[in-house]
Amino acid sequence: SSGEAWIATLKGLFKIKGTTITKAKNHGQLPSNVIKSLFLDKDQNLWVGTDKGLYSYNGNKFTQIKSSSDSENQIEDQKVYSIGLTDDRKYFIGTFGAGMFFYDPYTFRNLDENDGFKGTTVRAVTKVKNDKVWVGTDKGLVLLKGEKIIDRLSKNEGLPSNVILDLHYTDRGMLWIATTKGFAKYKNGRIQSFSSGLPSKIVTTIFSDNSEIVWLGSDGSGVTAFKNDDFYNYSMADGLASNNVYDILQSSEGLIYFACYGGGISVWDGKSFTDLFNDLPDKRIFSLAFDHDQNLWIGMESGVAVYDGKSITTFTKSDGLAHNETRVLKTDNRGRIWAGSFGGGVSCYDNGIWISLNEKDGLISNTIESIASLENGTLIFGGKQGISYYDPTEYDFPLIINNIQTPSGDLSINSTATGEIQSITNDRIFIEVSSVNYNDRIENRYFRFRVPEISSDWSTPQNLSSFEFNPQSSGNYSYEIQSIDSDFNYSKLLSILFKVVPVWYLNPKTAVPFWG
Predict the structure, then answer these.
(1) Which pLDDT belongs to residue 321?
(2) What is the pLDDT of residue 414?
């Protein structure tokens, strides 16, 4: 659109404008002059394939595109001969001798040491107005807008400490800040710090309730209520389940819930503390969250539990969690539950399914200690060395039949594309399918099935793409299969029709000659 043209040559990258030919600015950042392929995207970023890897170019700087560290083949070592873009902004990169590479630069967008988070761990993230996000690190506060740092706050500006442990932003525009040396409030460019009156200067968590009482958790000294500049301290002597308070939140009924590590959950009704229940599978609790139905989710050392007011259901790594040690829980705008773990990445629960993401998928870190959900559906994960913006593409994708094995032999794809498959009762039929989806790793794909004529409920999702059908009664059946990827995109429904008849000696049409 600017009237410029880019030319790939064996002696470098050149730009033509009018009758003038110039070599690309900062060409020396490339490892080689041998340019094999070019692609210009909608944002006017130029993708440059060389005989020593793939680079993006913004007109001033070349940035190397790297494979994940666990990849069998590294794109950094390859001759890149072709670059193609899909409708949902995913790249396919063709190489000489190493096959095809897939690159997704938009689902995960990481801000790390190159973006101002060098040597930091992000323990708190909270959204504010106008698409701004406050990020608490162990080197102070960072304010983001449009995925760029626009402000910083530290001890130099009045914070009690640079080590931020928690953040809470109120509807009235007040930011409450928990640190290792007290707490602070920030509004309209002004910071006010507090430390005297606290039983412990280490404030593990901070929460402002509907009455504008600020609750402050500690590690070993109970909880403090801060109201009208007065401090009210509570401990186990007052009925608190434990003096280690790691998370605080309020229910729709106005009750205050406290995650008491080692003691369980305490509830404050405005007058006294009560234990929520004594039959928790693990009282080492890090985090709490309410879903859209006001079910209470509990993040523990040994997994995640959910309490519906009557009973408790627990989930562990064997149920699909990334890791049992759950540091943070968050409900997103769609009502899904996100669980950040210590060492395993992040997991999401939706419609009875846990799906997990980690560094192999593009996540900034496998240790996630903070999660924020933005109005536009984007999620922010805070961990070691920075944050990840997660903005998956929504789409559906097809399933294909690889093989259907019956007692009488294998059926080809063509024979099952239309019509129905004839079978008899008690036949064991094996079905093998594949999802046409290059967006995630194979181990992140789940499959489920149902037979509506038997039950409308879906099966428990499985990683295996093979299924067995063993009809016990005669009749017409539709065997339905669906795949789910790591972004919770569902495939198009694959329906295989079966006509099941009784065995020949129980079928009147075939048994008449036999009976005479």
Answers:
(1) 94
(2) 52
Q: Do 208 and 96 sit in the same domain of this protein?
A: no
pLDDT score recorded for residue 231: 96
Same domain, 294 and 427: no
For residue 247, what is the domain's CATH number? Answer: 2.130.10.10
The Cα–Cα gap between 389 and 174 comes to 24
pLDDT digits (tens, 9 = 90+) for 361-399: 889 999 999 999 998 889 999 998 899 999 988 888 999
Query: Going by C-beta distance under 8 Å and a sequence separation of 6 or more, which residues neighbour residue 216?
Result: 178, 183, 198, 203, 205, 206, 223, 224, 225, 226
What average pLDDT does this structure show over 431-452?
89
CB 368 within 8 A of CB 124: no
Closest CA to 246 of 201, 290, 204, 302: 204
What global pTM score does this model have? 0.85
| Tens digit of each residue's pLDDT (9 = 90 or more) over 96-144 | 988 888 888 778 899 988 888 888 999 999 999 878 999 999 999 999 9
Put the strands of the sheet holding 223-227 in their side by side order.
203-208, 214-218, 223-227, 230-234
Position 508 pLDDT exceeds 80: no
Q: How many folded domains does the chain comprise?
A: 3
Taking residues 413-421, report their average pLDDT.
61
Q: Any idea what DSSP says for residue 157?
A: G
Rounded Cα distance, 34 and 340, in Å: 44
Shared domain for 82 and 116, answered yes or no, is no
Residues 253 and 295 in one domain: yes
Q: Do 286 and 421 reside in the same domain of the chain? A: no
Domain assignment of residue 301, given as a range: 110-390
